Every structure is written in structure tokens, then in C-alpha cells.
Amino acid sequence: MIRIKLPTHKHPLYPTPWVSRCEGCPRRGGYVKDGYRCYKCDFFFHKECAEATLEIHHPSHPAHPLSLFLEMRRMKRCKLCGENWYHSMFYHCSICDFVVDTACAKNPPPNVIEYPKAHEHSLVIAKDLSDFNCGFCGEESQGRCRYRCYLCRLEFEIRCSMLSLEIDYPYHPKHPLKFLTKEERHFSDGKCRICGKYLRWKFYHCSICKFSVDVDCVRDPPPLTILFPKAHEHQLSLTPRKISFDCDACGMAGDRSPYSCQQCYFMIHQSCIDLPEIINVNRHEHRLSRRLHLSLGSWVCGFCHKNVDWSYGAYSCSICPNYVIHSKCAIRYDVWDKLELKGIPEEPGDIEPFKVIDENLICHFSHKEHYLQLNEEGIISGGSIRCEACVLPIYSQAFYSCVQCNFILHKTCANLSRKKRHFYDDKPLTLICGDKIERYCNMCEEYSEGFKYTDFQYFSFDVKCGTLSDSIIHESHPCTLYYNNGKRMKCASCNKWDNQFFSCDDCSFGIDKRCATLPKTTQHWYDEHLIFLCYNKSKRGGEYWCDICEEQIDTMIWLYTCDSCCVTFHVKCVLGDFSRFMPGRIVKFEEWRIKTMQTSPGFVPRCYVCHTRRAVPFVLNVFYPEKNVFICSLDCLVFRLFSQKSIT
């Protein structure tokens, strides 16, 4: 694997046997042999575009040299062909604002095509900006370089102008192919025999063999043979037939035009030829390497949990001998971080979260100013003592406490990894803390003041979600539940529909990502005992009422209960919206100061917005320049602070 860094692109580029779409020029569709790809951006470049000269002298603009510019998704209009495009590369004169695309810089389009194959008259270049339908292929083209026949009032895309109505196609030498529309002839399965894409309105077809191919694959067919050691040690040949096969690289079935090796009986999808060799996936902490086949045995994919056939290619971990993942599962957009790691040194291992001072003292990264002392004596605090990382009460767990101040961490939270990978994000996460961190969790969509795992770009997760695995054992169901993104289901806990679930592979049971992290036990001042999450609906009978809000509880949703007192509560009444805020701590938001306050039997303040006295465990005391008020829920907070921005 040759990793190349070129000035035409900010990320490393890797050779690929062909390019069917190039981000560096307007040429779209078809195949061009040899090129580069960027796994990070999912970009492909023709070899000549990726290796383009940074400055040229062009006869179309002799006054000044033209410099290669790299701008993403900004519309430009080529002065030579008149085409508008949104590509990243073009040549530009900063003095004259002269722009020419990379294709025209190398091969300027002629002003006149005297003898086109697609039409009986000569064609003249037209540089206007209006959209048009090509008179040959019938496809709508937006701003493409077109040629016009002024006698027939027809317009043609430049590449279609040199195509004939009947051709001899090298990948179907038996019979000529005729240019047809879908209305003229029935065909096999409506897909191109070469690339497998669905045929558009016009295409080439052999009625004898039921061989159909789209216009792009006629203009620029894939190479008949390739030698690409990354895919296979021998030369591979294209088999342009409709044939059922199992791809040796990914193990999945194919139905047409594989590349094959006659020496080894090796077959591979066109799309699997340049699979990355060494990658990271968000389902595993270590690097994975591509294997041509696994050792004999029974293997299960770490993503889809289905069997992996050991005789086909897959990705495996050299550190964890039992971990493998299907090739197609490994390179999913929501699993792979889009980086090819071949030739990139592996980063040092995980940074320790603390330094050991002695057997009972540590210096934690989140509290470097003081030492933390281990306390393993069981206590029950009733929620008044809370961990700085997860913002959950210290009940009977071991914890570290600061020898000089009130800083406290659960022992398990003190040992949290500083860096990790998470199934919800394709980028590595870092554990951070401090007053200025994002309080919103992108997974459970709740707010908290604890530590966060973040990728520093798009996602931030609180500790309870950041430490969640993609497979969980939940007391509500006897089978393992796996994270599933995209399968729409109804949550067994809250009875709401969602498309991100922890679900069972064998049945229709699933719980959404928020309900999966509900605490199994908790406390509320309304009851002196620990209360438990109850999810066994089959044993319920009669009606249930919430002792906090005194409203009826839907028997189809989970609830909290105290077996000693025979009372039940809504989940939302027990937890509230501010249970992950640190009691007594004051934070600033614009011109306001906000303090979280714990309620009690003698302190249930009236909410300024909804005017109710809700016995939620925590309320917010919002201090304004002239007054302070209480807010009982996030809805009330958003309504008052974010919509109206002030209290009148």
C-alpha cells in the first residue's frame, strides 16, 4: 500500500485501479484507469487531476500564469466550456478572475465538431448557462459543456456527440449493441451488466443476449485486466457476464461482472478491490487488519452478530484473537472512521486517569490541585453526596474524596479511560471535565454537569452514555440486546417509536437509547426506602397511580415502585429533568445565574412558568439582575430563557 501526500488534497491519497467519479474535474460517470482515493473524504481523483501542476501557462490566458486552487463546494464557471460545477479543483488567475477547470486546462473543447457520430450535422459549442436535455442520451444536464445544432435546434453533451446509434462493444464482441430507450425493448433486470446500476432512460442493448449497458460504461468502460496486489497477487480479469458468485473479499453474493483470477478461482466485487488494509472501527478499541481468510473455526461478526465464513475475507484483531467483523460491516459509514492506517504508526496506549501516590492516595487528572483518598466504607447519602463525574449519588459504592475540599469520585468513575471508542460516533473520544464543557449529551439528549466524552467536533456524551457498550444485558429481557441504528421500533419502556434501539436479534423487543440507561435503583424524598425500576408488565393487574403527581400510570410503560410501601411512581416524576445537575452549584448562562436546588417535603417551590408545585427531586433557582425565580422542568426553562430571553 503506497500512501501519497499530494498538494492537491489535504489528506493522504491511496492508489485505486480506476476512478468512476473525480472530485477534481467535471467529468462524471464511466471508468478511468488508475487514480487515487481519499478514504477520509470518500473522494476519488483521476491520476492526472491528483498530480496536477500547481501553476501553468495556458494559451487561453497568455497574460498571466494560472494557479491551482482547492476550494470545496463553491460554484465556478469555466471560461472555456461555460460549465458551472461544484468541484474542488480549478485553475484561476487572481488578477483577471479567469477560471478554467482541470479538464479544459489539459484538453480544451473544440469550438466546432465537424463530424459528430451522434448527429448528421456539425455541432457548435454553446456557452450559455441554461439547463438542457441532451439530444442523444436524453438526460437532463445542468450547465454541462454542450454543443448545438442550429439547423435541427438540438443540443448534445460533448461526450455523447461522439457516440453512435450502433456500436461494437469490446466486452460483448458477439453482437453489436443498439442504442435504445426503455420504451423500445424489454430487457433482463433493468441494470447495467457492467456496473450494476439501474439503467436510465437510454442505454445500449443486445436483444439476442439480453445484454444491457449504460452510456457511461460505453464511454469509459472499466479496464479488462488489472494488477493490484492489494486485492490479489495475480492479474485479475473482468468477467462481463451475469453470473452468481460469492466475493472472496467480503463473502457476500454478487450477480454480475466480477474480477476473477483463473489461477486461483478467486472472484471479487468491483467495489471490494481497494478495501483498506488496517482500520479502526467504533465497535472495538484496537486496530483491525484485513485478512484474506480466517483460521478454521466458528466466528461471529462484532457488528451484525451473524456468522462469518472463515474461508472468505474479513477484518480481525491481532490483540483480541476472537474478534472479527465482516468486511462490509467494517467499512460502514457509521462504523469506520474513514482512515487507512497502513504505514501510520500506532498511537501510544491509553493515558492513565490518575497517578498513584500510595495505596490510598491518587492524583486524578480532573483534580490535580489536591490528592484524593480512597474510602471503601459503605454509606448511604440519600443523594446529598454526588460524584463529580457521573453526578449520581454515592450510596454504598467505594469512592475517592479530596483530602482538602468536597470533590468526590466513585472509584469506578476515577478509573474511567481517558480515551475510548464508542458505537455512536466513528471518531475516538476523549474524557474531559471543567466548567466550560458542553452539558448536552448527544445520545440520551439530556443535560448534565458531569464529565463528558467528546470527539471535539460533533458529539459529546455524558459518562453513563459514554461508557455504554453496543451490546448490553438488561434485566428486562433474557437475551443480549444490541444497538441497532435504523430499525424503527416501539420502545418497551416508554412505548414511544424511535429508530435507534437496543434490540433483541431473536424477537421484537427493544428499548431506546435513553431508557437503556435508566437507573435500576434510586431514591426520592417521597419514600424513605430505595425504589426500584419495574418493567414486568405481565404481572401487573388493575390500575396504578403515581403517588407524587397523583395521576394514573399507563400500564404499558415502566415505572418505579417501593415494595415495602406498595407505592408506584412515574419515571419522569422520580428523576425529573435536573437529576444530573450538581446540587448547590451556581453556573452562569448569559446574564443569569442558575443554581440547582434539591426539593424536600418542606420545600416544593412554585414554578414561575407553569405555576405548579411539582415534587420533582430538583428545581432550578434562576437569578436575574432584579429577581430570582424557580423553574421545575426543562420545557419551562426553554420556554422562558430561550424563547423570551427575559422575565417581565
UniProtKB/TrEMBL annotation:
Residues 8-57 form the Phorbol-ester/DAG-type domain. InterPro entries: C1-like_sf, DC1, DC1-like_CT, PKC_DAG/PE, Vacuole_Formation_Reg, Znf_PHD. The keyword rRNA processing does not apply. Keywords: Metal-binding, Repeat, Zinc, Zinc-finger. Pfam families: C1-like_CT (PF22926), C1_2 (PF03107). It comes from the Eukaryota. One of its GO terms (molecular function) is zinc ion binding. This is Phorbol-ester/DAG-type domain-containing protein.
